[in-house]
Amino acid sequence: MNKNRSLPCFLLAAGRGERMRPLTDSLPKPLLTIQNKSLLAWHLEALAKSGIENVVINHAWLGEKIEESLKDGRQFGLNIQYSPEGSALETAGGIRKALPLLLPEDYFLVINGDVFSPNLPVPSLLEAVSSLRSQPNQLLAHLLMVPNPAQHPNGDFYLKDGLVSDHASEGAEKLTFSGIGIYHQDLFKALEIGVPAKLAPLLREAMEQNKVSGEKYAGPWHDVGTPQRLQELNAAYE
């Protein structure tokens, strides 16, 4: 395996952003800005800084505006390709459609286009890839988990001893999935290209086989879900 080849990254940018209306009536949600820089641009700068070279971005709603804004990625020092979706294919469906562009050797990085993490921990995720590759039992996913935010107090999954589970167990901490993860291409092999599919059922199935690892990230992370939250973040990072 070519260890020097940069890990491909997929940015999810196909959502309609209903809760962000009216801001998203004329702009795709991932192009909304914090400190005059789009959410996608924050991600792209962090990826380039960490040595990522190839990025694929999916889009549906007003996708041409994303391509106009980011072009081929040269201004970030990246190579950006696009995976347009006539209508959004959900997370897993979008990933499956983009796999022929991503061309992963095994693992690849996926980041939600509508989260804001100004110190995006790409280096630690790249270290996790080396660890994943050395496991005798091939893991299918590695999730970045964060403390439960006010708007999502009950969390998503349990983290214990580096494994993520859908079931409570003694000593496990219930956390929120950040929308940032590393996936093995095999997680999506049963999906048909162009058919909508959600990610959570695939992850839960892999969890049942102890094939999902994870890490807790305590740095800044925000789900930019409402116009008010966007306004607060712009004020906080001024």
From TrEMBL:
Keywords for this protein: Nucleotidyltransferase, Transferase
Molecular-function annotations in GO: nucleotidyltransferase activity
Name of one Pfam family that matches: NTP_transferase
Nucleotidyl transferase domain mapped to chain residues: 11-237
Source organism, top-level taxon: Bacteria
Matching InterPro entries: GlmU-like (IPR050065), MurU (IPR054790), NTP_transferase_dom (IPR005835), Nucleotide-diphossugar_trans (IPR029044)
Record's protein name: Mannose-1-phosphate guanylyltransferase
Species whose genome carries this gene: Polynucleobacter hirudinilacicola
